[in-house]
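User: Could you walk me through two proteins back to back? I'd like the raw sequence and the C-alpha cells for each, with a short line separating them so I can tell where one ends and the next begins.

Assistant: Of course. Protein one, sequence then structure:
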Amino acid sequence: DILRIGVFGSYNAPFWGVGSDLDVVVVLRRSPCPFWERSRYFDTMSLPVSVDLLVYTEEEFEKLEGRFAQVMQKEVRWP
C-alpha cells in the first residue's frame, strides 16, 4: 500500500530549469522487496522528465538520519 508520495529537489525549488530531474519519494506501508529493487516496479519512463525515485517503507522512512533526513523533512512536499 502506498501511504504517501512527495516531491523534493530542484522541481520543488525556485532554481529548476531545463534538464532538471524530478526527485520523488514514495512511502509504502511495507514491502517484501529490498530498498534497491522497489523503484523498478514503478513506471517512470512515460513521464516527460527524468525521475529519481526513492521508495521507502514507512519504518525505513521514519528511521532516516543525518543530513539526508534533514533535507527530506525540510524539502519534501506531500500533496
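----
Protein two, same layout:
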Amino acid sequence: MRVKSGWYFYLLNLRAGTRSFIKSIDYFRFREYLMAIKEINSDLDHPGEAGALDVGCGEELFGIFLAKTNNSSEVTAIDRDQGRISLQMKYFRRLSPGCRNFKAELADAVKMPQADNTFDLVTCFAVLPLIEGEGDIGIAKEIGRVLRPGGKAYITVGYGKDYKEQRDAAGARGFSRIYDEPELRKRIIGASGLELEKRMYFGEPGVKFSRFWFRLPFIIKLPFRWITPLFTLAFLKSINPKAINETNMDKVDGVFLVLKKGRGV
C-alpha cells in the first residue's frame, strides 16, 4: 500500500464539510498521522493489496484517507458510536462518490466481529488510553487476532516516566491514562502477542505549546482551528528513541508503536 502525503490528508479534512473544517485535525493526532503515513509508505511493498482496519475511528478521516488513496484496497473503520459511523459514511460518499472500498461498522473494539487473520494493516490512534479497566488489554488482543501473519499494527498512546490514570469532573467519560514502560509492554505489546518492530516518540522539545492551546476557550481557538496542523509542525516533533533518557523524559508526550505479527503465528 502507498498513501499520499500528510498535506493531502489535511486538504481532505477541509473538503469534508463545515463540521470537519471547523473541527480540523487534533494537534497531537496530526503528528501521529504524519508518522503513520511515513511508516505505511515504507513498510508495505505491494500497492493495493493490503486490507486495512482503523480501530476507534471517531470522526477522524484516516480510514477514508487510506481508502481514497488506494482504490483497490478494502478499508474498514470501526467505532462503538452509531453517530460517528453514520458521519464516516457521509464523509466517504461526499469525498469519494462512486467508490465502494470503504465501510464503517458499529463494533466494540474489545470484541471485534472480524474474523482471525483478516487485515494486513491495523491503525489505532490514541484510543487505548481512553478505555477504562482492562479494555485496553482486550483491544490489544483483538488487534493481534485480526491481523494477518506478516501484517503490521500502528498504535499510539500517551507515554511518560510514570504510569497514570486520570479522570476529570465528567467521570468515566473523562478517563485517560499515560503509559510507562512496564505497563506499555504488559498491556499493549505483550497483550497483543505481536512483535515490537519499531518505536518512536513524539513531544514538544522546546515550547510547550499544548499547555497554552488546550487552555484557550473554544470561541477564541475557533478562528485558528483550521490551521492547527501548522502549530503541530512548529512545536510537536517526532523524537528519536536514542535521544531519550531518564533526565529528559518530560519532553515526551506519546509513543508510536509498529507491531508485527509473525508469519508462523
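The CA atoms of residues 43 and 264 lie 19 Å apart.

Let me know if you want the two compared in more detail.
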